[in-house]
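can u do me a favor
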């Protein structure tokens, strides 16, 4: 974590509408319930959307690097999607781990969902290895699940972006465009 202090960062906070996300999740989960089973979370959908959005903005997967003491840009070939997972230790304390799904940019949603579930299962069963944490290029953290509205996550070396999802409100944003009659 200390190495993150040397990285230049910028923070941008946005309020975005999520009604379509709610609606699509309901449709997907109803379909899964009628078929093979399973459930899709908001975090599954947001994570997959992040990976696909990099097609339009690949620079968000680039990271700061120093080469011979001079600032530079690392441009990884693939997207290794980091997922922040909050774990409870046997003594009751909490630990945040961020393993990554390697090559997420080459996956369809089913493969991404499976990779995500595998990471969470490994984390909960204390089966993560060093390789699970290496090479992360972007990350998703969701402190909104515990009520946090806004956070400022820290980039680790090699990461270009961390998306922090805050708590959601059903109130319309004060920045919503005016309605036209």
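np, heres the sequence
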């Amino acid at each position: 974590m200390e190495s993150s202090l040397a990285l230049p960062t910028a923070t941008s906070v946005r309020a975005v509408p999520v009604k379509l996300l709610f609606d699509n999740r309901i449709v997907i989960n109803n379909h899964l319930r009628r078929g093979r089973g399973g459930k899709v979370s908001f975090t599954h959908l947001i994570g997959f959307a992040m990976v696909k959005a990099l097609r339009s903005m690949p620079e968000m997967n680039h990271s700061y690097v120093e080469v011979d003491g001079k600032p530079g840009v690392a441009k990884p070939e693939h997207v290794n999607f980091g997922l922040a997972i909050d774990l409870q230790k046997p003594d009751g304390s909490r630990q945040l781990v961020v393993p990554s799904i390697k090559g997420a940019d080459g996956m369809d949603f089913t493969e991404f969902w499976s990779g995500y579930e595998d990471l969470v299962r490994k984390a909960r069963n204390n089966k993560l290895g060093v390789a699970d944490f290496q090479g992360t290029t972007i990350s998703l953290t969701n402190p909104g699940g515990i009520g946090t509205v806004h956070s400022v996550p820290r980039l680790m070396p090699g990461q270009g972006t961390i998306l922090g999802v805050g708590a959601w409100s059903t109130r319309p944003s004060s920045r919503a465009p005016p309605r036209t009659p």
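Residues 17-164 form a domain with the Chloramphenicol Acetyltransferase fold (CATH 3.30.559.10). hope that helps!!
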